[in-house]
Amino acid sequence: MNVLWITNIGMPPICEAMGLPVPAIGGWMYSSLRRVKELGDIRFAVATTWHGDHAVEKNIDGVTYHMLPLKGHSNNVYNSHLEEEWRRIRDSFRPDVVHVHGSEFPLGLAYVRAYGSAGVTVSIQGMLSVYARYYCAGITEKEVRGNMTLRDILRGTIMHDRREMAQRGVYETELLRSVNHIIGRTQWDCDNTRAVNPEAAYHFCNETLRESFYTGRWSPESCRRHRIFVSQAIYPIKGLHKLLQAMPLILREYPDTQILVGGTDIVHRPWYRLTGYGHYIQRLIEANGLEGKVEFAGMLDERRMKEAYLSANVFVCPSSIENSPNSVGEAQLLGVPTVAAYVGGMADMIPTPGCGEMYRFEETAMLAGAVCRAFRNSESFDNTEMRQTAALRHNPDMNARTLARIYNEIVMR
Q1: Residue 13 has pLDDT above 90, yes or no
Q2: What per-residue confidence (pLDDT) applies to 53?
Q3: Which of 11-25, 95-109, 169-183 has the lowest mean pLDDT?
Q4: pLDDT for res 220
Q5: Percent of the chain clearing pLDDT 70 (strictly above)
Q6: What is the mean predicted confidence (pLDDT) over 335-345?
């Protein structure tokens, strides 16, 4: 069986071979690829785009990697020239199954427009057509206007970003309506994809995470007491502003509390690159007296990300919308006390109190209370149920077999 993967980022082997930076995100896809490939009987090709002017094809460890040239275009908009690239790849590889990883970019739509939906399945990561509703995450238009920067004037505020996400959601909706197979993993993505395309077959398959997170275990003795870890805060959906609003209540009980923020640092950058959201975060830090209490770690590779989880007293996912964030799964595999907003598919990730605590996104007092309880109960916290639940959900061998079975079902239909 020939299976073509269409991904939104380059896999580590092709990036290394081309001398390109290896993305700090998406490592879970490569972990999944390796596991499914080990089952045999499947020949893989993996295709994505790169900011070049020519196509690249390389065979590495039995996988054919294709890098499609953007030729100055953006991944966020539909590029009709990619249709010809897909014809070339299809004619040479002749896939039985085409697996589009994520509906957020119109790269997969270009394949469907060029060749139709026969044998195509889309696995849901997020759904931009839904996410756009929650993009501003409670930030008002008045607050947006009050925090505008030069970059906002030149490139648009978060209101502009929300409209752009909604437009990408239009492409996403066309893609989902075009295909006959969808892969998901939560009740949230099942219900939302069925709302778009009730005729498509829905296949359930959990995700395999990055390999290093399957070893190691959090303990109260080795963490930094009263440290909160947030994995990223690049835009409002990730909800850092809500955590900052909750901090005065947390500090009232635990005055030594610190926040470590992973991902792109949106605050410490030249004034001409500062976004309105970054400016808003700066002002919240000042207004709540949080100078010296919020550390932006920047982009973290897999090793440093794992260290950040293990050194935290609690991991918080304060997002306004998520499907099933891998950050929560990684924290749970390691057994880190976890607090998350009750949004999207989060209930599937935190089915019992032993797997974490949830609160309503807007309720900063509840967020503060959950964090304080995590601090208070650290010494007696038993992470056995959390780790066992996450280990079953993210079992690499089981997920690989499930995915291979789905491919066979698609071919048989």
Answers
A1: yes
A2: 86
A3: 11-25
A4: 96
A5: 100
A6: 98
Separation CA 379–CA 72 (nearest Å) = 54
The confidence band for 26, taking pLDDT boundaries of 50, 70 and 90, is: confident
Q: Hey, what are 293's tokens? A: 């209490």
* Confidence (pTM): 0.94
Closest by Cα among 328, 61, 298, 321 to 209 = 328
* End-to-end alpha carbon distance in the chain: 14
